Amino acid sequence: MADLVYRQLLSTLKKQIVAGDYPNLKLPDERSLSEQYQVSRSTVKRALSILADQGIVFKKRGSGTFINPLYLKNDSVFHYNNGSNLGVTDSFQMNGRKPGISLLNFEVVRPQAELKRDLFLKNDDFVYEIKRLRLFDDEPFMIESGYIPIKIMPELSRQIVSGSIFNYLQKEKNQAVTKSYLTISAEPSTKEDQQQLKLQPNEPVGVMAGVFFLDDGTPFEYSRMRLHYKYMKYNTFVTIDD
Amino acid sequence: MADLVYRQLLSTLKKQIVAGDYPNLKLPDERSLSEQYQVSRSTVKRALSILADQGIVFKKRGSGTFINPLYLKNDSVFHYNNGSNLGVTDSFQMNGRKPGISLLNFEVVRPQAELKRDLFLKNDDFVYEIKRLRLFDDEPFMIESGYIPIKIMPELSRQIVSGSIFNYLQKEKNQAVTKSYLTISAEPSTKEDQQQLKLQPNEPVGVMAGVFFLDDGTPFEYSRMRLHYKYMKYNTFVTIDD
DNA sequence: CAGTGGTCTAGACCACACC
DNA sequence: GTGTGGTCTAGACCACTGT
């Protein structure tokens, strides 16, 4: 991965930016970079576009490419995900805390209409229903209800489900979950939320719900996550074009 | 904008996909498309990459490009933003409801340290503090607190601030806000939230806070939005690579 | 081995910003 | 007008998939 030309250039530029090699916050023009690193201008553009997508630089037609000053202030609001995390254990800053899983429920059910639609199921397909309580250092922070088609993972067991399913997929079946569509919202806590997540009645949960996809586009899991509100922090960098 | 070759191809393919012109959910290969539409393969790749970023298709090296079945089910969970909306009046589905603004407060203040950092301000820079209640059809749904450096918009007035600031920027100064960094979270409602947004004490608010940037990368506004929880629905399509 | 997407190049021409 | 990023092309070669 890192031996790709545009990846190397990307990484080089990123290091230089962080190191403060461009005190005037302006990068050299694309043609110069192309010359300097002996790569085509297209490759330079590719690297710079990624930096722009990540919010690290701004490209301004006619004047140049400029470093986002906010990115340099390392302790600032600007430490975000690049939207590039998936999997519960990766998505939350655990700050050295040990993640845990407590299995609440594990059974096979007939999917509701909506679920059938979202997971692209046929009429007589069944799904596993997996309800788990997620913890950090024995402190519960999320109730997760997952639905996985039997036909995708017929071998699923209480054992597997008590650990990270994504890791299992990766290691045992060499399949990666690289895409997800999620809706983020907030709700008052239910009695169950309050009990499991140790919430006061007036304290809410954050809700993240949606579909995870395998590399090849197969909808793999529908998941509904109810988070202790203090643990829900979703960072996004958005660009509009149209 | 739409006369660009890759944009046209993009729009053509999107229409065909929605129209069901590819019943087997597989697009023609890139070289065929290049031939068929008399454009270079690079241009085809560009259009297809955008479709992939939007989650509409999956590209699989060695086998082809496939349509995401979820995208075809139009009424499904899959109708999302592409993360491509900015500006309050654009960002929420208004469903024909008329947006309104009630100005709660408008003054000049000395920015706190954190704000100074996020807006990249110097020691003696001042900011406008603009607090507004946003409505749909006279129903309040959001309390918005915005902070804009005086030096960026010295001409700001109660009049301007009572309408859409982004529209004003666009029309009067030909500057667009095209990027934002936001953190999304949830909180119990405060007394003020409950009063302004007509919430019960146990009902929460969604919080979206962060920085909006001008085209040239200037941090333009820090905004903190507290939303009636029923109005907070943020949709994301995330891809991981690394 | 054939088919398909991924990377990379070299160069032409356009559009916008600034002097 | 010069500098800079944006679009587009034509083609070479690589990497992975599936027969």
From TrEMBL, chains A, B:
This is GntR family transcriptional regulator. InterPro entries: Bact_HTH_transcr_reg, Chorismate_lyase_/UTRA_dom_sf, Tscrpt_reg_HTH_GntR, UTRA, WH-like_DNA-bd_sf, WH_DNA-bd_sf. Residues 3-70 form the HTH gntR-type domain. The keyword Ligase does not apply. CDD domains: WHTH_GntR (cd07377). Keywords: DNA-binding, Transcription, Transcription regulation.
